[in-house]
Amino acid sequence: MQWKWREVKRSGSSSRKSERLSGGTKFNVFLVLVFLVAVGWAVATFSAPYLRKDKLENTMADRMRFLSKSNVEDMIIDLTDEAKKIGLPPLTRENFYFEGGPGQDSLLRVKYVEKIKLYDDKWYVMPLVAEKELHIPKEMY
Prior knowledge:
By secondary structure, this protein is of the alpha+beta class. The protein is about 40% helix and about 20% strand. The protein has helices at about 25-65, 70-85; strands spanning about 95-100, 105-115, 125-135.
């Protein structure tokens, strides 16, 4: 049995085609990178309003706990000022709904609209509701 020259492989290295990525593989890697960039952009863009909403809800809970020392109107004024600091759109008295009082379970709800700027001059309108329900103590210690 004799060997033929076409059956001989070069020793110590693989074929030339496997040294580099093929064209189809490069394209697939490019598509995956574009997809990851798009997902990252979407997460960064659409998570910011929910983070601001969470900060507002935490502030609402803090203000509701000290309601026995002040009244509802002062609490709402404080919340509108805090909303400006957080970066929310301007809130008015009509955005707030309060039910309850000191010594009982209370509900504070804020409805507002956030606009998210997309590309060019396109905007995505996102209606949000921040809601906090807790028991307000009658007197603070």
